[in-house]
């Protein structure tokens, strides 16, 4: 039994995602290393306590209702939330899985997948895609009016003639007659 517990601890402490276990009353009974590092608190701060006893409401407001839903419905719940902790802000995909015994929840497993970097990348790409629409140039490329390039002598046309016609055909596969 001791070896089994040690193997389990070693396995979950080396996984890239956070894992927590709640008892039948919503109190922490286990947290892996990922969760403890994000929280910036020792294990003793969690064991036997609920989230609303540890954190202020702005920390747990985005996920605690889903945990309660898992207990009430006795079914798994997956959602996205932003968790603001003293160590930083994390965008997470959270899955709560209830463990049932005779139809009652005796434990809930919580899996936390950090998507913070993905969200930052998506926001950066969206910003880059919108920049030309706002007339902003792309740094270092001299594209657009915001990059110090003067406005063209005549506006581009889409009627099958002009400088954008060839680009339209190549990029979108449209023919001049399609417009």
What is the fold's blueprint, element by element?
Elements: H1 2-13, E1 18-23, E2 28-31, H2 33-39, H3 51-54, H4 57-60, H5 64-73, E3 77-85, E4 88-101, E5 104-114, H6 116-130, H7 163-172
Antiparallel strand pairs: 1-2, 1-5, 3-4, 4-5
Broad structural category: alpha+beta
Output the helix-strand order. HEEHHHHEEEHH
Query: What is the CA-atom radius of gyration, in angstroms?
Result: 26 Å
Mean pLDDT comes to 79
Number of helices: 7
> Order of strands across the widest beta sheet?
2-1-5-4-3
Q: Alpha-carbon distance between the termini?
A: 73 Å
How much helix is in the residues?
A: 25-40%
Structure description:
The chain is α+β, with helices and mostly antiparallel strands. The chain has helices at 2-13, 33-39, 51-54, 57-60, 64-73, 116-130, 163-172; strands spanning 18-23, 28-31, 77-85, 88-101, 104-114. The protein has 7 helices and 5 strands, in the order H-E-E-H-H-H-H-E-E-E-H-H. The longest helix is centred in the C-terminal third of the chain and has 15 residues, at 116-130.
């Amino acid at each position: 039994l001791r070896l089994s517990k040690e193997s389990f601890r070693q396995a979950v402490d080396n996984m890239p995602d956070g894992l927590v276990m709640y008892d039948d009353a919503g109190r922490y009974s286990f947290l892996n290393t990922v969760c403890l590092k994000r929280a910036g608190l020792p294990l003793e701060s969690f064991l036997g306590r609920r989230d609303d006893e540890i954190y202020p409401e702005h920390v747990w407001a985005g996920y605690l209702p889903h945990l309660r839903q898992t207990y009430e419905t006795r079914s798994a719940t997956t959602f996205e939330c932003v968790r603001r902790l003293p160590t930083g802000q994390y965008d997470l995909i959270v899955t709560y899985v209830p463990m049932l015994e005779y139809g009652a929840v005796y434990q809930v497993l919580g899996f936390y997948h950090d998507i913070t970097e993905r969200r930052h990348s998506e926001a950066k790409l969206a910003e880059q895609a919108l920049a030309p629409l706002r007339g902003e140039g792309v740094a270092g490329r001299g594209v657009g009016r915001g990059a110090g390039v003067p406005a063209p002598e005549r506006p581009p046309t889409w009627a099958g003639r002009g400088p954008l016609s060839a680009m339209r055909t190549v990029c979108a596969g449209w023919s001049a007659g399609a417009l």
